[in-house]
Amino acid sequence: MPESIAPDELGRLLPRIERLAREAGALILEVYGSDFAVRGKADASPVTAADERAEALIVPALQALTPGWPVVAEEAVARGAAPGAGALGDRFWLVDPLDGTREFVSRNGEFTVNIALVERGVPVLGVVYVPVPDRLYAGVVGHGAWLEEGGARRAIACRAEPAEGPTLAGSRSHGDEVALTAWLQGRPVAARITAGSSLKFGLVATGQADCYPRLGRTMEWDTAAGDAVLRAAGGCVLDLAGAPLRYGKPGFENPHFVACGLR
Length: 263
Description:
Blueprint: H1 7-32, E1 39-40, E2 46-47, H2 49-65, E3 71-73, H3 74-79, E4 91-99, H4 101-106, E5 112-119, E6 122-130, E7 135-140, E8 144-149, E9 152-155, E10 167-171, H5 177-184, E11 191-195, H6 199-205, E12 211-214, H7 220-232, E13 236-239, E14 257-260
Parallel strand pairs: 3-4, 10-11
Antiparallel strand pairs: 1-2, 4-5, 5-6, 6-7, 7-8, 8-9, 12-14, 13-14
Helix pairs in contact: 1-2, 6-7
């Protein structure tokens, strides 16, 4: 079994992953500004040239940067061209080249590039890049989490839940109000924020929200990068039984989960 990578070493790797996410974002914006076509995949989810061009950049770049570390990327999985869970070993990359394709198609700007490194089932490094409006979340578990926007970079951390109750982050395109009401069980909520893609993890990691319950289907590439940033900021992502979300599962499908700030 290989030794775990030290947080300081991951911290040195992080800027290269940030640059890669930004380069993928630039390709996405080229398509975003064009009259692009939208196609349906086998699972009925949409895909565009932006998803494919970003993934075609990210995957070989990661393979060149870290030879021997498998890369699992959304569009490759859809084509049957990605390694299965049984072939991943202790360390692998998870990539969603364009998280929030529905938001991309709607042109509301709430889409992201997600790149995460998973070690022994735990996301230990994550980058979530938001091309519109050029915002980047990054984190290394045990080393810290950061937000970069407007030319400035600052450390971020989750907040303790206010006395008046939590602010909930929710999905703009995948909400289930009946399931959410049942999960809350009458618990008071101070405020609610909706956002697309992995932006919900960023809201909790920066203390703008306290909780993001996701009571619907997600895949590991949807959550791993945001999960890593949130863990690095002091939060956690738990299944409904209270266990931390794990990665490298057969089929790469997540259970329902709750992303939390300080508990």
